[in-house]
UniProtKB/TrEMBL annotation:
Transmembrane segments: 15-37, 58-76, 88-105
Lineage: Bacteria, Bacillati, Cyanobacteriota, Cyanophyceae, Oscillatoriophycideae
Keywords, sorted A to Z: Membrane, Transmembrane, Transmembrane helix
Entry-linked PANTHER family: SLL0939 PROTEIN
Pfam families documented for this protein: DUF1622
InterPro entries per record: DUF1622
Record-given protein name: DUF1622 domain-containing protein
Amino acid sequence: MSETLALTVRNCNELLTSLCQLLALFVIFVGIMRALIIFLKDLLFKPQTTEAFQRSRLAMGYSFSLGLSFLVGASILKTMISSRWDDLARLILIIAVRTILNYLLTQTIASSDQKESLLLSNNNNNS
């Protein structure tokens, strides 16, 4: 009975881990496509290419941040079943690196959002 339960838990864990990884891939792919569409649309129809670059970068940054969060969740799920110390140490390292990357991404996004809102308010005041 306990072997069947352990096998069921392991299978559910593998399924959830794979689902989180697939969601991360999907979110990152959609973000890249959105960023590319924003950049190409603005490049072709508007003369301000720096603004297009910044907007596409922000769209991609949001999706990378969400994708990294899904990957952290997948790493936690993958290590939950394992009881080896080297797996736990690897998990801690992976989470630390991904959390730092996520923090840096959100800082860049927040900084870009502030710059964009300042530019918009300056443009509205000049109009």
